[in-house]
Amino acid sequence: MLSRSLRSSVPLTEVGMGAAQLGNLFHETTDEDASAAVDAAWDAGIRYFDTAPHYGLGLSERRLGAALAARPRDEFVLSTKVGRLLVPSGYPEGVMDDEGFAVPATLRREWDLSRDGIRRSIAESLERLGLDRIDIAYLHDPDEFGEQAHAEAIPALIELRDEGVVRAVGAGMNQSAMPAEFVRRHDVDVIMLAGRYTLLEQGALDDLLPLAEERGVGIVAAAVYNSGLLAQPRPPADASYNYAQAPAEVISRANALADVCEEFGITLPEAAIAYPLRHPAVVSVVVGVRTAAQVTETVRRYGASIPDEFWTALRERGLVRDV
């Protein structure tokens, strides 16, 4: 599998494995399926793995670290996130997490974007992962904490990078405006952008992507299926978008994209993986997977041959803003 490097010389495979499902996102994943998914990703050439404390209250980090423990450490890149500490919840036994993960709520998430909180988060992630280092640290969804993110959290991450604790730093968010400010005001290396630069929507072309290209900041495109809307050849009537029921006009637009895909003998999810990688600032597409079969299908989609005429047709019909 091809790789692209950040300016800090961290190489990311063009497809990365997103490990939220290893934290029991929406429903339980078995230990066996989690381990098999990582094995399948490795066998397929994927060498970039992304996780976060938020994913299953640390379960994703523990499972991913265990699955990678026997792999040569210099042969893969791992990213995790900071901003939410995990602390004892004090909830009664049997209470389950209420933020989308099928895990017991023995811990709870506590926002902490202070310098000490960022450093503590990295130390605790290293302990859960059982690995000797983290390659990329993202500030995770600081939408409501902009002032503190600029004043404390991002500078704390840069300090950790300068100390050699991590190799690259940035932010992971579902919007492009605040990450653009991080790029404009700080010496960050990479932004993980979820859902805002996809086959369906390209709003990040108005702010983040031109600035990232100018400053040499890498973009990791996540949620390229827009919450599942683009994950099948045709979006179902009850498709999700931004983690909610997709509006009718959004489903109609996805169907228009699917029409052009069918004309050229490709599928909607194949095009969804390929589209972000056409931008020169994009270094990887991270796809969340739960099983080995999903990994195999993701890599097959990545390998699909897509003619230039397909992109021209989408642009001429006003369905995408090409680069």
Automatic annotation (TrEMBL):
For molecular function, the Gene Ontology terms on record are: oxidoreductase activity
Q: Name one GO cellular component term.
A: cytosol
For the NADP-dependent oxidoreductase domain, which residue ranges apply? Answer: 15-316
Q: In terms of domain of life, where is this protein from?
A: Bacteria
Cited InterPro entries: AKR, FDH-like, NAD(P)_OxRdtase_dom_sf, NADP_OxRdtase_dom
Query: What CDD domains does the annotation carry?
Result: AKR_FDH (cd19162)
PANTHER family annotated for this entry? GH17980P-RELATED
Q: What is the protein named? A: Aldo/keto reductase
State the organism named in the record: Leifsonia tongyongensis
